[in-house]
Design a protein that fits this description.
By secondary structure, the protein is an alpha+beta fold. The chain has helices at 3-12, 24-34, 97-114, 141-150, 203-216, 264-273, 299-312, 327-330, 356-373, and strands at 38-41, 49-54, 60-66, 87-88, 91-93, 124-130, 157-160, 172-174, 176-177, 179-188, 192-193, 230-238, 245-246, 249-258, 281-290, 293-294, 317-319, 336-339, 353-355. A hairpin with a 2-residue loop joins β4 and β5 (91-93).
């Protein structure tokens, strides 16, 4: 079996549902230590983190990723057990195959191939790995970057293995992401009987005009790198279950995916202004998941584009689409961040899988990126 596929299979067989690591970092660490990497655990809270670096004193090229996966969902709906790592019909099946244990395996084997001849490198190589990307993401990459920043250890270039590809391996890469801003809005009215509405304050009636303004606002036009900012209401909850009771409270969850035209503070102010004049008492509980970021598109982007052309015969569309990633914690330090990984068609789904040939080719692309960064 190909080395990349075998390692990916072994990682899938470790049921590392977030924030569990289930021994994945230990397996990867053994391979990296054999290559001369110095391993440092940066565990925090319930999260396992690994910083591994080969070399000291030169600019750092880092691979970044996560060992944790989302829950498998209904086991009865899986064609193969989600943590067996079954290989069938040219695909490796299992939770995390594409997001992102396949990428982790490709990173490791790419380094093994690249370092086989012990080249003289113009940079140090590092791995920044966490088990808390699919969860709250508070004790993972964010924590590690704070530790590195506190001691003055910088990452110059970072390749994140998120599954960026759309229709074929290498057709899409990322050099930026939209920001994500969440709000839990609590509306406090006054409970009462539906026959006596003048003695109550219906929180649903009170908040609907504001929600209408919120959902109909055009926040911006976007720019050359990002689409327009969007807002989506994801949950509305109220009521006692009885038809003759005016509820006393309501809760609303909504999320902004915003571009570099916006700031979290500006969006908060605009959103809260939509509810001016509301009869009920309002409590806005905001949570910023990550800022929007756009990296320079410098040497790493050029190396990635050239590597995809060399290995795959394809020129990737390097854009800012998709959701959030841990790149949002790395880019603000001045790091040039680019994301490239497998096809994302099955991520987070039942029957997640990845082409075994794509894993072989992804390792070759990562190797070629390292080679081009040496030119």
């Amino acid at each position: 079996m190909n080395a990349t596929v075998a390692l990916a299979q072994a990682l899938i067989q470790k049921p590392s549902v977030t924030p569990e690591d289930a021994g994945c970092l230990g397996l990867i660490g053994e391979r990296l230590a054999a290559l001369g990497f110095e391993l440092e655990r940066m565990d925090a809270g319930d999260t396992c983190n690994l910083w591994a670096r080969r070399g000291q004193g030169k600019p750092v090229f880092a691979f970044a990723g996560h060992t944790d996966v989302v829950p498998p969902g209904p086991l009865s709906e899986w064609r193969y057990p989600p943590f067996d790592g079954v290989i069938s019909e040219g695909h490796l099946h299992g939770r995390g195959a594409a997001d992102m244990k396949g990428s982790l395996a490709a990173m490791v084997t790419a380094c093994e191939d690249f370092l086989a001849n012990e080249p003289e490198l113009p940079f140090d190589i590092a791995f920044l790995l966490t088990s808390d990307e699919e969860g709250p993401a508070t004790h993972g990459t964010k924590h590690c970057m704070e530790v590195l920043e506190a001691r003055g250890e910088k990452i110059a270039w970072c390749l994140v293995g998120e599954p960026s590809s759309k229709d074929q391996l290498g057709d899409v890469a990322r050099r930026g992401r939209r920001g994500s801003l969440n709000c839990k809005l609590t509306v406090r009215g006054r409970q009462g009987h539906v026959a006596y509405p003048h003695l109550a304050i219906n929180p649903i009636h009170a908040v609907v005009p504001g929600l209408t303004r919120l959902s109909s606002t055009q926040w911006d036009q976007g720019n050359e790198h990002f689409p327009a900012t969007t807002m989506q209401i994801s949950n509305f909850n109220s009521g006692t279950g009885a038809t003759n009771v005016i509820p006393g409270t309501a809760t609303v969850l909504f999320n902004f995916r915003f571009n570099t035209e916006q700031t979290p503070e500006g969006l908060k102010a605009q959103a809260e202004a939509c509810f001016e004049g509301c009869e009920a008492e309002l409590d806005f509980d905001w949570n910023l998941s990550g800022h929007a970021f756009l990296t320079s598109g410098g040497p790493l982007s050029s190396a990635l584009e050239g590597a995809c052309q060399d290995v795959l015969g394809i020129t990737p569309d390097i854009n800012t689409g998709g959701g959030t990633s841990d790149g949002r914690f790395i880019a603000p330090t001045g790091t040039d961040v680019v994301e490239l990984g497998p096809i994302n068609a099955t991520i987070h789904q039942v029957n997640e899988c990845v082409s075994t040939q794509d894993l072989v080719d992804l390792s070759r692309v990562y190797t070629r990126i390292l080679e081009r960064m040496c030119d």
